[in-house]
Structures are given as C-alpha cells and as structure tokens.
Amino acid sequence: MQTKDIDYAADGAILRGFLALNESAGRVPGVLVFHEGLGLGDFAMEKARQLASLGYVALAADMFGERRQAKNLQEVSTIVAGLRAEPERLLARAHAALATLAGLQQVDASRLAAIGFCFGGSVVLELARSGADLKAAVSFHGVLATKQPASEGQVKASILVLTGAEDPLAPPDQVAAFEDEMRAAKVADWQVVSYGNTLHGFTNPAADGSMMRTALYHEQSDRRSWAAMQAFLGEMLA
Amino acid sequence: MQTKDIDYAADGAILRGFLALNESAGRVPGVLVFHEGLGLGDFAMEKARQLASLGYVALAADMFGERRQAKNLQEVSTIVAGLRAEPERLLARAHAALATLAGLQQVDASRLAAIGFCFGGSVVLELARSGADLKAAVSFHGVLATKQPASEGQVKASILVLTGAEDPLAPPDQVAAFEDEMRAAKVADWQVVSYGNTLHGFTNPAADGSMMRTALYHEQSDRRSWAAMQAFLGEMLA
C-alpha cells in the first residue's frame, strides 16, 4: 500500500489530505474520508488505509487547514461551530477534497463516495445535500441537522446513515427530522440504521467517555457499521 | 436439499410446517420462518429453502392451522386480528414451532433464530418479547406495536428490525415507540434499519399494490434486507 500527504487549497486555507491506495491495473473508485471534530489524525488515516485495502483509492480530507488538530473539546467546539455556521466555507473545503480525489490518475471519477465520522458525518451529508457527484455518502454518528436542508431533486448520492440510538448529538427527534428532510427532498435512495444501546463516537476505540461523557466506543456497533458500509460501497461503486 | 412437511400441534390446532435442510456432518443452527398474513405458502417456503442453502435447518412455521391460506385481505384481517387479540394463543403456536425445530436431530438447539415477514415479523417480535431462547430475531416489514411490551430483562434474542420508512403499518411514531420499548426493557442488543422510499411488504415480488395499495415490492430494499439478515444470522449463530 502507498500512502502520502497531498496538499490542496480552498477557502483561503492549505488543506493537507492523506492518500492511501494500492497498486491496481486500471482506474478504481475513490472514497473520501471526513475526520471527526479533533481534526485529521490517526483515526481517519487508518480508515483511509482500510478503504485502500478494500481496493479503493482513499483520500482522508483535511477540513481544518494545515492538518490542525484540536487539543480539547473547547477547541473542537470553536472550530466546528465556526465551519458549521458558514456552510459555504465548509462546502468549499469539502468540494475541494472531492475535486482532488476525482483528479487523481488512479481514480475513476464516475465512481466516487464519501464517508465521515462525527463532524465528518455531517460534512458528508452537507456534501450530498449540495448535489455533489457522489454515488454513495455514509455518515457514522454524524449530526443530522442542517442549516440548508436538501431541496427537491438536488441529492445525487445514495445515503446511508449509521447512528447510535442513544447518541445525544443525533437524538430520535433529529433522526425523524432527517427522514422528513429526505422525504421532502424526494431523495431517491436513503437508509438509516439505528444501533441500540449505542452512544456517540461508537466507531472510535479512543472514545472512552473521558473527553466527552456521551462518546463511547461500542465494538459491536463499530464492526456492524463498518460491514454495512462495505456492503453499501460494494453495491454503489460496482 | 431435502424438504418435507412436518406436523405439530398447539392451541388446539394441527400446524403443518415446512422443513428445508441440507446434508451436514453435525448439528447446525436452526431458523424459524414466520409467514405473512396470507398464511404459509410459496413465499415463506422459498425463504426456508434459501436459509437451507445458507447452511441452516429452516422450519417455515404454520400459524393458522392445517396450512390455511387466506383468500383475500378481509380473511387476512380476520385471522390475524383474531390471533393478535389473543397473544397467548399466538405465542403457544409460535413456541410450538420453536420446540419442533429445537427437537430435530439435525439442529443445534443452542443456536436458534427466527425471521418473519409482515404478520410473521410481529410474531418474531412477540416470541422475542416472551423470552424465547433465540439468539436472533429478525422482522421484515412487521408490525412493531404490541399488547404485551417487553418487560425488563426478559428478552434474550438479539433483535434486528428491517422496516420501510413509508410503511403505513409501521409508521415513524410506531418505530419510535418500539425503540422506546427496547430502551425501557433494557434489551441488550437491538437494531432498526429504515429503508427510504419503501412501503409495506417490500420483500415480496407478488406485492404489486393490487391486494393492498400500500404493500409494494422494492427490489433494492429486498436485496439489502436479506443481506442484512444474512450478516446478522452469520454473526449471532456462529
């Protein structure tokens, strides 16, 4: 497997992504990985490596600029709230990552997908809402609420939401509102999987409740959600 | 593959199940199939065959007695309403099917599961609520409401609910109530998958809206839900 850093620019920032890919005969589908609120670090890079081992070209995007890492929950909140308050900035950065991936010579630009975790899950959904040319969009414990609900006919991606039934950042009424948004926008293909007894951050072994009381790793839901994503990408990127 | 009818008795009725199994060296996990409101017919028998081809011993249960088939929606309503109004009768029949499966020499009685469709989905959930010794319980477009909510600590089965987001027999508030029931009963393992743009009866190619306007086959959700069930049974019956 090859991995390397890859710089791109958007919204006045230098974004330092992380690319993972395997040797392949021809062009293969590309998958973006959007990091959680801490910034692009080991977690999202490991997901990119796992996607590469599945045969995809994976680009872990940098949404914060110069691969900035938040040091604590306060910093996460400040950075994330800043980007979420200005969706056009968030989208400019996300679309730049997509264009970077699509432009790689190893990538089949007609077969692209995006996955994301926590903050990154909401980025994936914003990208899908904006009409990005994605075959598939997968949110792992992402916030589902938005300032810019999908408008009718705009969403091209098939959407898979993987959420913890006890996630206080995506409580039942938010899930219900998301489903209503999908209905209203006549999104052609969407699914929501709700994992019982599962809190926020359930895919991240580092989530032990210390940084955020309600973010907790859940091995079974982690395994199931990754398998669900694999099947979904296999289906949509075939 | 071997298939044969198998009679058992409960609740004053002769129940005529349909068994499907493959040759195997030792005992294998057993899976019950509970039929939809029309009664035990080709649809549930084919599901039993498919489960046998996956390596399970599959028993398609007969919930109506003497393999009675409903001729029309009126008859479905009468029979189903009758059984649902008397949960102890419904449970006696379902438990008799489970005991029959568990008693087969080819079956590992410590690894049992149940799946069901429409009416059968609600039977599976009632069986799980009653504390049946199941490793896994899967409802395909079943009614999720119940007269006898699970009580705390009673449910042993891991539960997977596969439901159409537009199923009028399992609307969003019913799904929400079901999730609340699972929480209140502290069910150790449950999941709900909601398929967008999907009505009732989505697994049944015969559901063309003619018998019931809101029951409609959905090829993609059929395929996805069967794959989700396969992964779940593989996990829970390993």
Structure explained in plain terms:
The structure is a homodimer of 238-residue chains. Helix content of chain A is 35%, strand content 25%. Chain A has helices at 42-53, 73-85, 87-102, 119-129, 172-184, 219-236, and strands at residues 2-10, 13-21, 28-34, 57-61, 107-117, 136-140, 158-164, 190-195. In chain A, helix 3 packs across helix 4. The mean pLDDT of chain A is 96. Chain A has 238 residues and is α/β, with parallel strands linked by helices. Chain A binds chain B through residues 159, 165-166, 172, 176, 179, 182-183, 187-197, 220, 224, 227-228, 231, 235, and chain B through 159, 165-166, 172, 176, 179, 182-183, 187-197, 220, 224, 227-228, 231, 235. Strand 8 (190-195) of chain A pairs antiparallel with strand 8 of chain B.
Q: Tell me, briefly, the overall form of chain A.
A: globular
Instruction: Report the sheet-strand fraction of chain A.
Output: 15-25%
What is Rg of chain A? 16 Å
Can you write the helix and strand succession of chain A as a string? Answer: EEEHEHHEHEEHEH
Low-pLDDT windows of residues of chain A: none
Oligomer: homodimer
Helix content of chain A: 25-40%
**Termini gap of chain A:** 21 Å
